[in-house]
Amino acid sequence: MPSTLLNDTFLRALLREPTDYTPIWLMRQAGRYLPEYNATRGRAGSFLGLAKNPDYATEVTLQPLERFPLDAAILFSDILTVPDAMGLGLSFAAGEGPRFAHPVRTEQDVARLRVPDIESTLGYVLDAVKSIRRALTDAEGRQRVPLIGFSGSPWTLACYMIEGAGSDDFRTVKSMLYARPDLMHRILEINAEAVAAYLNAQIAAGAQAVMIFDTWGGALADGIFQRFSLHYIDAVVRRLVREHDGARVPVITFTKGGGLWLEEIAACGVDAVGLDWTVNLGRARERVGARVALQGNLDPTVLFAPPEAVRAQARAVLDSYGNHPGHVFNLGHGISQFTPPEQVAELVDEVHRHSRAIRAGSASGA
Fold it and tell me: Which residues bind substrate (predicted)?
């Protein structure tokens, strides 16, 4: 039986419907800045041990919701689960980040790539989605907040698959892009098909909104971004199930460094566009008009400032957007592991408080 959402503010904001206040969630909201997360990760033994165990993934997904009155939960997982399912051998070395044992470098490597069978290779993610939905829902079928599923974008996944790890300059992946665009397009076609299948499986399992993280799209030149990143985001979006259990499933995309291409990103069929902290939110709203909702875009380092500065900067973001539908408050990128949790509490409180005041002022003619 479908659950009844007690708080659907996030979903309504994504669909540009009026809300009583501006909803807020945070990229990487379940993470190392929370001591309880670190305790659970310690019990799991490793990051992958945490991400691949549905019980642990459920536990850490709910941890920030126990601390803060956030308006959405996001599945605890990693964007690199898809290339891991392709057999590239994902591991996380302490202090080094993700690494693939079998990067995609040659024509033969590309020829071996296949879209993975989602149910058999990524069933642990789908089990986590189902488990989180159950944990968010009480005995009467009332669900606290919506659940967001996600994936990396085809281009961002390709960056890790070809580099074999993170990169400062993306020299290996860009060299392939310019020297053998045919190989790059083939990788991106496979990735787009895999990402769409993965997100659709998350939706079927219970994700009520999905997000595409194009973390490295901003590393591309103008003209190249459109051909090698945005084109394949569009290919994913066109394949997605947009309604499940009688409800619309909104789609968000976020290109870090993508402010230059805001209008083009907004035209790719998504419901909302995430913005990093370099973008003027008010001008962004004017640029896209009523086409999409906007998500963002506080500089994450604001959370290291004193509480009064955190609250002032939160108000500045809200005031920049103005009293218009279609805003989901978020950071302009993921929260830092060094962030004091008490500053997050200040932020969430101020976003809710000030956005309610904005709505009330408009209603009273102020």
Answer: 28-32, 78, 160, 215, 333
Residue 350 lies in a domain: no
Kindly list the catalytic residues.
Answer: 28, 32, 41, 78, 160
209 is in an annotated binding site: no
Domain contains 121: yes
Q: Which residues touch 256 (CB under 8 Å, ≥6 apart)?
A: 214, 215, 216, 217, 218, 276, 333
Q: What is the CA radius of gyration of the chain?
A: 20
H/E element, 254: strand 251-255
CATH assignment at residue 262: 3.20.20.210
Report if residue 352 sits inside a domain: no
Number of domains in the chain: 1
Alpha helices (runs of H) in 97-180, residue ranges in sequence order: 107-112, 118-121, 123-136, 154-163, 171-179
Q: Which residues contact 69 (CB under 8 A, 6 or more apart)?
A: 348, 352
Residue 123 marked ligand-binding: no
CA distance 203 to 129: 9
Q: What are 29's two structure tokens?
A: 């909201």
């919701």: which residue's tokens?
A: 65
Residue 54 lies in a domain: yes
CB atoms within 10 A of CB 223: 8
Determine whether the annotation assigns residue 215 to a binding site. Answer: yes
The pLDDT value given to residue 1: 42
Q: How far apart are CA 272 and CA 253, in angstroms?
A: 7
Please tell me the pTM assigned to this model: 0.96
Confirm whether residue 78 is marked as ligand binding: yes
> Cα separation of 144 and 62, whole Å?
11
Peptide bond connecting 297 to the previous residue in cis, omega within 30 degrees of 0 = yes
Q: Which residues of the chain have pLDDT under 50?
A: 1, 364-366
Rounded to whole angstroms, the maximal C-alpha distance in the chain is: 67
